[in-house]
Amino acid sequence: MKSRYTSLFVTIFVMVFMYLPIVMLVSQSFNESRYGGKWMGFSLKWYEALFRDSAVINATVNTLVVAFAATVISTAVGTCAAWTLNKYRLSRLQSAHYVLVYAPMCVPDVLMGISLLLMFVSMRVDLGIATVILAHATFCLSFVTFTVLARLQDFDFNIIQAAQDLGAGNFRIFVKIVLPLLGPGIAAGAMMAFTLSMDDFVVTFFVGGPGSTTLPVKVYSMMKHGPPAIINALSVVFMALTFTVAIAGQFLTRKKF
Amino acid sequence: MKKILKYVASAVALCAAIAMCGCGPSKPVLNVYMWSDYIDLDLVKEFEQKYDCKVVIDIFDSNEFMYSKLKAGGAGYDLIQPSSYMAKIMYEQKMIEKLDHSKLPSLAKINRAYLDNLAIDKKMEYSVPYMIGFTCIAYNKDKLGKIPDTWAVFGDSKLKGRMTMLNDMRETIGAALLFKGHSINTTDEKHLEEAKKQIIEWKRNLAKFDNEVYKVGIRSGEFQVVQGYSGDLFQVFAEAPELTWMCPKEGFTMCCDDWAIPVTARNKELAYKFIDFVMTPQNAARNIEFTCFTCPVDGAKEFVSEENRNHPGMFIADEMYKKGEIIQDLGADNAKYIKVWDEIKLAK
Amino acid sequence: MADDKSNFSARAGAKRFTEWLFTAPSLLWLAVFFVIPSLLVFAIAFKTADPAGGIGPGWTLDTFANVLRSDYVSVLWRTVWVSCAITAICLLLGIPVGYWIAQQREKYRYWLLLVIIIPLWTNFLIRIFAWRVLLHPDGFLRSALLKLGIISDDVFLLNNLGAVITVSVYTCLPFAILPIYAAAEKFNFSLIEAARDLGASRFKAFVSIFIPGIKRGIYTAIMVVFIPAMGSYAIPDLVGGVDGEMLGNKIAIRASANRNLPEAAALAALLSVIISVPVLLVFLKQKGVLKNVINIRRSSGDSTK
Question: Please, what is the angle between helix C106-117 and helix A229-256, to 10°?
Fold first, then answer.
């Protein structure tokens, strides 16, 4: 029983570790002081300021659009890549494929940003939200692929063989067998992609064009004149919304069953 | 390959456009590329109404990144805001326009003392000075009392771990050069060597070299002495009466962010109108109060609220322009500073 | 017999076609958006730098010679050991968490994952500022540690490598947990019970059955933590001290403030090589191992025929 308790304790420790700064952040969002650190009294002024600041709201919308699109693209392409990497793992093509998927993780983001910028410009593609999405999908792709690949370890291809023998078509096999089996891996990969995209600053900065400012770009630049307290409020609103959506989703699916 | 890429890009753009579902009316658009929180946004709204146009503001946080982006050619901005040294480089590389003064009547009110003593572009050939700041030292007067105005404060080992200097080679080496009685734009290796030794000595007392967190740090009491930029620190002081500042007697660095129009601008007329609009004394006064930096427009003082009117940091006196020094680009000699800065970072 | 053979080759052809078909999306995507631009930039490492910040016309090998200078060694060493520490701590915490979550009832699992990842959906910088409040010299954490006598008066929690490691672990941990969970979710926990029945201790069963059982999840976790840690620069910048510079900071500074893109590119190439060596070794070994296993399986399969 000891190990079961150990893992429970570690999990509790990790949860506390993950949420301690979040508790700080939430309390700071109600702090009158712009610079935080010292408590100057309870205030909702940052929330008011947030709803008046169209630039921050615009940037948030941009961020979500980019993160969503990049997640969809990278998850679809990445799952495909992981599938082939696992299934045909001995072929020469897959060795090259593996190196290619692995390599983008090794390039620092400053260089990735500059290199994509040079390419987009030399191909005369107008910089904007589309180029940001393409760039994000590129660096998320590797992370998704490797996460799904982790799930595929010791995948039993006999199941597919059996389904084929029973006369199931490729599409049916994919939807009814492969996807559910890969589900947790794909979900984990998608979460990773979404998170990475939401936080990226450097690559976005380089490949963005007029009107494509995302939240991290905005926040980094706001830093020049001190920490943007209104982003605390934004983070709280965003987390609250996420939890609400998740809980609502849970209830809706529960009713169906 | 190009075609495929274009298809992909346009498909993604389409999705994005649908997702944003925002197709506004086709007013003329002015794309501005500038520092964050550097202009009163109500003023921008007034400009939009006055000229029936839309102003899209994108932001950058470093001159160099802004430069590499424009240099690569893919920008599409009508108005940019480089610091003076960067404006000079960009002009020499033919990246920004020579200005047509007939379209900028408000330039007549730009402060002569600044232009004659300090400015790099004294005739405003390619840039209009927007906001001037200087580096100064902020400290906690409740804990430390009044401290003498000298850079030597960083040598005080009693404050070990509670002080920061900027993480910017020109500013920090510049501080040591001034302390040693040299120009901040020196290219003499002996001077640089002296400055290096000085900073390595100071480094033992510093918590870190920092450009970002010092403002929170001094506010929350984590740091007690910081080297920082004037306007940003004045914004902190507004809510922290225990803090004060000083300009070291050995001298200090100054910098200015300018307006400039890229040669690739699509809407130059509107860009001129925008510059002219923000540089009138009334509007300059509003931006001064918004940023706490100095907009060198004569007569702006009259439009500022009573409490700020006599602020010695927000309205830089003419003699300060003589005392301060502006950071200039040193071309190939920059390498000397880079080398010294690398050595400082490595030194124990 | 002959029929069988032609059938086989047709099948092999079809198999090859499907392989290409499913490989094509990622292969093409990466070729266009990664290989071409990267080649463009790494070529720059062999160009001369122009003092204004552009790229000079000539070609040179000096930049690379410059990068291999001795004074990068200490920065490099610091980068490597800090990244190793971050990775080790992430695994130490991530494996038990993945193990625990995978054992929970299915409807709770996604919730737990979501709860772990959501802190990262707040803005990166804001999180770091929250950490600075937590680790503040007069904050409750340091005061408590001081009262308990765990640290002495001259120890600060901020502006040192300890802070860099703590905050990096905070940022990377969910990325370690996700692949470990993805692998563990499929793990057959009755194997552990079986080992227990055979007399193994829980810890022994955990180490010798569970960990090899989720091997690929752990490899992935190492990759997604170690590699970004090697290139990180924002965290050392914001919570590190005077001696906290890592290779990522050098690259960022060369590319921005120093306006020396060739040297940034050369440093990045150096970084990529350093990262690639251990991981490619693991990969090759893994492939070798796989080959051996399959050979054994084949031969045992033959013998039963």
Answer: 170
What are the domain boundaries of chain A? 66-215
Report if residue C10 sits inside a domain: no
The domain that holds C41 is classified in CATH as 1.10.3720.10
Which amino acid is residue A132, in one-letter code?
V
Which chains pack against B, by 3+ Cβ pairs within 8 A?
Answer: A, C
Tell me, rounded to whole angstroms, the distance of Cα B276 from its chain centroid.
20
Beta-carbon contacts of A47 under 8 Å, excluding residues fewer than 6 positions away, are A29, A233, A237
Q: Which domain holds residue C106?
A: 30-285
Q: How many distinct structural domains can be found in chain C?
A: 1
- E runs forming strands in chain C: 47-49, 55-59
Residue C103 falls inside a structural domain: yes
Digit-coded pLDDT (tens) for C235-277: 998 899 998 889 989 988 888 888 888 888 888 888 888 887 7
Contacts of C182 in chain A (CB under 8 A): 147-148, 150-151, 184-185, 188-189
Residues C275 and C230: beta-carbon distance below 8 Å? yes
Query: Tokens 């893109």 — which residue?
Result: C261
Residue type, B177: L
Q: Are residues A78 and A144 in contact, defined by beta-carbon separation less than 8 angstroms?
A: yes
ipTM of the complex: 0.85
**Rounded Cα–Cα distance for residues C92 and C180 (Å):** 12
Cβ-contact B58, A210 below 8 angstroms: yes
Residue C176 lies in a domain: yes
Looking at residue C10, its pLDDT comes to: 73
Residue A228 CA to residue B270 CA, distance in Å, equals: 30
The CATH code for residues A66-215 is: 1.10.3720.10
Beta bridge pairs of residue B54: B29
Q: How do strand B163-165 and strand B206-209 relate by DSSP bridges? A: parallel
CA C193 to chain centre: 32
Domains of chain B: 26-126+256-323 (3.40.190.10), 134-252+330-346 (3.40.190.10)
B52 token code pair: 């029936």
* pLDDT band per the 50, 70, 90 thresholds, residue C48: confident
pTM: 0.87
Measured between alpha carbons, how far is residue C223 from residues A178, B86, C117 in Å?
25, 40, 18
Chain B contact residues (CB < 8 Å to C): 1, 4-5, 62, 64-65, 67-68, 71, 89, 92-93, 161, 167-169, 203, 206-210, 212-213, 216-217, 220-222, 329, 331-332, 334-335, 338, 342-343, 345-346, 348
Q: What is the pLDDT of residues C204-221, one digit of tens each?
A: 888 989 999 898 899 889
Question: What CA–CA distances, in Å, run from B277 to B50, B55, C294?
Answer: 10, 13, 76
Q: Say if C252 is an interface residue toward chain B (CB within 8 Å).
A: no
